[in-house]
Design brief:
Blueprint lengths: L9 E4 L2 E3 L7 E2 L1 E5 L2 E6 L1 H7 L4 E4 L4 E4 L1 E6 L1 H7 L4 E2 L8 H12 L8 E6 L10 H8 L4 E5 L4 E4 L1 H6 L12 E5 L6 E7 H11 L4 H17 L2 E9 L1 H13 L5 E7 L3 H10 L10 E9 L35 H13 L3 E6 L2 H17 L8 E4 L5 H10 L2 E4 L1 H6 L1 H8 L10 H7 L16 H10 L16 H7 L2 H5 L18 E4 L16 E6 L2 E5 L2
Helix pairs in contact: 2-7, 3-4, 7-8, 10-11, 11-12, 16-17
Length: 544
């Protein structure tokens, strides 16, 4: 359709607009009609094209396409915000303060009233409390404190009893109830599936409305970071319902990609049986695929590696710990094959090299039996990419969905638990780009901050939040780092035709920055601030 016949509603003028459709390309202005970019050019050209359109004046600021966070958990965060205590603010920095918090929050509460907390990091909060300490502080009430990696937690005696973890209870499959080696009595520390059973018990009564009320706040925070699209990792059925209600109510201002949770067998079966394929939905809510969790976390010393962890063992850690695989090979191959045959993209969380190899073997078996070009199966987090694994990714066409946010927020823990020499093969984006292996970046929020510029800074500077080096040889350019959060984020969800750059016909999702990431000292990248965010051609966040 000729531009003269389009009803251009909005023009974006006076910008340094980084289009991201090719390196170094910028324009001054954009014209937007029906939520799409219909023209690009100079400010004078675009103003003359639509003299009566609404004007967004960038005042010379740098503009980027909307950020795509291709692996995060807004539903998990939304369900807990306002209900669970959040350790992320760092105020609880000793065990005494932690126990005082439990004491204050449980005092005078009914005896069956739970105290729940999340984003706990024993490295910064004085270590794990003992079972006796939790019992005394809570007055015998149920307490559960979830580690920030969402793979471990510590529970009081009443919490253990509530889920049937009595003194002689057997470990659940792919989980562990830690026990005192001398007495055999539970210590309160729960790993993997054992911790998830407690979470399921606590959240069993949470409704879609409980999720919705928290999601509104969480997604507003994402918009403040320029994030206009997310892939909601391990999406729950309550969240799927909540997102649709938000859309109906006019509350949904962020585009949602659903990675349905493999922890919910009923949900997975229903999606497979429904005939829905990856891509089902629209530009606001779209089914990306199915996701399962394959190993633990490096910061919690549970991700599966070939070589054992270094440093101080975690409470109850087995000798020569190399982490754990959390899925059965035969059963998981069957599930992947079923999903793949149904036209659903499969994503598997795997961090350590042993886990990545294990699940690449599963993918290889499925693809050998049912080959499909451009399948875009994903390994989520995919941190420990050795040269051998890099070659496998290239050969198989599997996407390294890279937890770049870990490098910044958790890099110090990686150095402590794996050692400096291992950093050469952690998030090796220089090597992956040079090899032609696509590796979008993500935050895994709320495990890490949702701020994408933290991960971008780590990719460019190869430094942790604490300023420690994680091997400079794997550093990338600013454009390459931004590409991991824009073009590749869209591509790994099969949405590259609609978003990821500011080309003609693309969705008018963009963010205006307080500084030019290409012109500032690289170490200043973590301080980039989003001033305004636009989705569908409308301002949905404005710091100004």
């Amino acid at each position: 359709m000729a531009l003269e016949r389009l009803n251009i509603e909005t023009v974006v003028l006076n910008g340094q607009i980084v289009t991201m459709d090719k390196p170094g390309h910028r324009v001054e202005a954009l014209a937007i009609a029906q939520g799409r970019i219909v023209a690009r050019g100079s400010t004078d050209e675009i103003r003359a094209l639509a003299p009566h359109a609404a004007v967004i004046d960038c005042e010379g600021r740098t503009v980027l396409p909307g950020i795509v966070d291709s692996h995060c958990h807004p539903d998990m965060h939304g369900a807990r915000i306002g209900r669970w205590y959040d350790f992320f603010d760092g105020r609880i920095d000793t065990r005494d303060k932690l126990l005082a918090l439990v004491r204050a929050e449980t005092k005078d509460k009914p005896h069956d009233s739970w105290f729940t907390a999340y984003r706990f990091d024993e490295m910064h909060s004085g270590g794990y409390p003992t079972l006796d300490e939790l019992d005394a502080a809570s007055g015998g009430r149920p307490v559960f404190i979830y580690r920030r990696d969402a793979h471990m937690g510590v529970a009081s005696s009443a919490a253990l009893k509530a889920v049937g973890f009595h003194d002689t209870a057997s470990d659940p499959a792919f989980g562990r109830i830690e026990r005192d080696p001398a007495t055999g009595r539970p210590t309160g520390l729960l790993r993997a599936r054992a911790a998830h059973i407690v979470i399921e018990h606590i959240q069993a009564a949470y409704t879609a409305e409980d999720f919705r009320s928290g999601l509104v706040k969480v997604l507003d925070e994402y918009l403040s970071f320029g994030i206009t699209s997310v892939h909601n990792s391990l999406t729950t059925s309550q969240a799927i319902s909540a997102y649709q209600t938000m859309r109906q109510n006019g509350e949904l201002k962020t585009r949602i990609g659903i990675l349905a949770s493999g922890r919910d067998d009923d949900l997975v079966r229903a999606i497979v049986r429904s005939g829905m394929r990856s891509g089902f939905g629209d530009d606001w809510i779209r089914l990306i695929g199915l996701e399962w969790v394959g190993d633990g976390s490096t910061s919690g010393r549970t991700a599966a590696y070939y070589d054992p962890y270094l440093g101080e063992p975690v409470l109850g850690e087995p000798p020569d710990n190399r982490g754990s695989i959390l899925l059965d090979r035969e059963e998981y191959t069957r599930r992947v094959a079923e999903a793949h045959a149904a036209g659903l993209m499969v994503c598997t969380d795997a961090i350590g090299d042993r886990a990545i190899d294990f699940f690449l073997d599963v993918y290889d078996d499925v693809l050998a039996a049912d080959p499909r070009p451009d399948h875009r199966m994903r390994i989520e987090h995919c941190c420990n990419v050795t040269p051998a694994i890099l070659a496998r990714l290239k050969r198989s066409g599997v996407v390294c969905s890279s937890a770049t946010g870990f490098a910044y927020d958790l890099g110090d823990a990686y150095l402590q638990n794996r050692g400096a020499d291992a950093m050469k093969v952690m998030w090796p984006h220089r090597s992956m780009i040079d090899a032609g292996v696509p590796a979008p970046g993500h935050s895994d929020a709320p495990v890490c901050s949702a701020n994408p510029f933290f991960g971008i800074s780590a990719m460019v500077n190869r430094q942790t939040q604490g300023g420690r080096s994680i091997d400079q040889s794997e550093a990338v350019t600013v454009h390459e780092a931004l590409e991991a959060y824009t073009r590749l984020g869209a591509w790994c969800g099969r949405e590259e035709q609609a978003k990821g750059d500011l080309g003609l016909g693309k969705l008018a999702d963009l963010c205006i920055l307080d500084r030019d990431p290409f012109a500032i000292p690289p170490l200043d990248l973590a301080n980039v601030t989003v001033l305004s965010t636009m989705v569908d051609g409308a301002i949905v966040f404005d710091r100004r």
